[in-house]
Amino acid sequence: MTSLLEGAKKLVTRSSDIGARVDGLERAATAARGRVDDSVVDDAEKVAARAAGRLKLSADHTVVALAGATGSGKSSTFNALSGLELAAVGVRRPTTSWATACVWGKEGAEELLEWLGIPARHQVTRDSMLSAADEDVELRGVVLLDLPDHDSTEVSHHLEVERLVQLADMLVWVLDPQKYADAAIHDRFLKPLSGHRDVMLVVLNHIDTVPEDRRASMLDDVRRLLEADGLSGVPVLGVSARHGWGVDELRGMIAERVAAKKVTRSRLEADVKSAAQRLQEATGTAKAPSLSKERVAALDDAFAEAAGVPTVVKAVADSTRLRANRATGWPVTAWFSRLKPDPLKRLHLDLGASGKALTGAARTSVPKATGVERARVDTEVRALADHVGEGMAPAWASAVRAASVSRLPDLGDRLDRAVASTDLGAARIPVWAGLVRVLQYVLIVSAVLGAGWLALLAFGSYARLPEPPTPEVGAFPLPTLMLLGGVGLGILLALVCRWLVSLTARSRARSADKRLREAISEVSAEVVVAPILAEIASYAEVRDGLTTALR
After folding, report:
1. Which UniProt keywords apply (predicted)?
2. Exposed (0-12), middle (13-18) or buried (19+): which is 263, by Cβ within 10 Å?
3. Model pTM?
4. Out of 83, 105, 263, 520, which could bridge 140 as a Cys pair, Cβ 3.0 to 4.6 Å?
5. Domain count, the chain
């Protein structure tokens, strides 16, 4: 129980950093899904899952795999390292696709062996055998695997080797003097594992069959080939499992690395780093971009043009002039303006609740975007996407472009609804115009009364009736002053108000333009900007995850 607790403590300490790297790789793979090649993402996710699974298992055991080609002497090396003749105890090299495992210190290794997929019938517990105590202590914690031949004609053997090579903490490649340069092992295994030099040993077995004067040069040649594979610095040891030459040295090298308790961590770090580098090549190394305010503003302008905002703004100005001039104009002639159609109503805008219920609020009569306006929208969308994708890998830049146009098919309806739902502020006449209207009617009533009064005086003079006294204001009779003043002041007031109406129309047009562009900007943000921002966020998540995985 004490050893299990100590092992758990070591696992927590060891996994604090590598666990963060695994998490970073997993986050990067999840964020990259659908943006880069699925095979690269699948590989990263598998590595992350495999590393996470290994971290949950025994930290006191190290999986050491012996791999090589047919005739390389893996089994004899396996027997020499274990100090056992497996056939002597009823265990022999399996003729199936399963590997054989020899375990030093079985306690706590059960789950690890199950994770490795080694059947119980192919497991040998070294502690249960008659062996020297120092041998047990030296390799305690080792799970030694004898893998099938990687060049076997059996497909199941190939699959088993590839599976366990990915799971082993440490790899010992057993080469034969006759086939150590075989491209099969170099191209299929050694080159792809160029980042795993710290968890790898190479053994040139059957060294006894090589003339003594050629042994050193042959070992140098093996090192040269490894260097070409990107594995310079990997220890190369000449052994003869049959005669026991170099076995103790090999055993000591394995024991030394296992005792350092760094092999498992180094293997997982190498796996994570390798997968992260492949994912980074697919996603690019540029920093997460930011949206250009100038490009977004240009996009909003293009959308506003396509939505007919200039047409609607002009209609607001014209409608304001029409309604305000009707209210403030001279009542005798102002009624003629009722014969003119209201520009906003012609566009099915600002009709009021009952009007929208009658004509339908979903559509306006704003002219559809012209080919030139649609082309400008496409150009600005493409320019924004290209600006964001600059510096990204081609696959991710393509994902940004695809996201930028993913919602464009609904653009026409969205823009129309935005225009239709915007309060244009032209429904009510200005307060001052209402006051002018009252004043105009007071003046017209005054003129009518003055005209009536003068008519009565004229009729009395014609009928030779006694002329009543007529009040005067200065040198002008009151009835004449009422008639001329009511007409003159009314016309003058109407002319002055036209200037005020023009100012009001321009002010309301600017206000309507601002509200419309804000509504259009919301559409732009939802239809184009939001999908691009989502891609930027995913890219930033990938960069952050890869930075963590590769630190």
Report:
1. Membrane, Transmembrane, Transmembrane helix
2. buried
3. 0.73
4. 105
5. 2
